Amino acid sequence: MAAERWSLDTNILVYAIDCDTGEKHRIAVELLDALAERDCVLSLLDSL
User: Fold this and answer.
1) Which residues pair with 8 in a beta bridge?
2) What pLDDT, in 10s, does the model give residues 1-43?
3) How many other C-beta atoms lie within 10 A of the C-beta of residue 43?
4) How far apart are CA 13 and CA 39, in angstroms?
5) Calpha distance 20→7 (Å, rounded)
6) Is residue 8 a contact partner of residue 42, using CB atoms and an 8 Å limit?
7) Which residues contact residue 43 at a Cβ distance below 8 angstroms, ignoring those fewer than 6 apart?
8) Kindly report the CA angle at 39 between 9 and 21, in degrees rounded to 5?
9) pTM score over 0.85
């Protein structure tokens, strides 16, 4: 079975490491933890 592919905005990574963002931090950490437990491919898209 092929892995799922996810696109993740880089702001999620920023919120995950910035404890001062309150609810956004909590949600970002939960999202990254959930994705880490799945068989998926994470694609980070950058704006040009």
Assistant:
1) 44
2) 566 777 778 899 899 999 999 999 999 999 999 888 887 766 6
3) 9
4) 19
5) 24
6) yes
7) 5, 6, 7, 8
8) 35
9) no
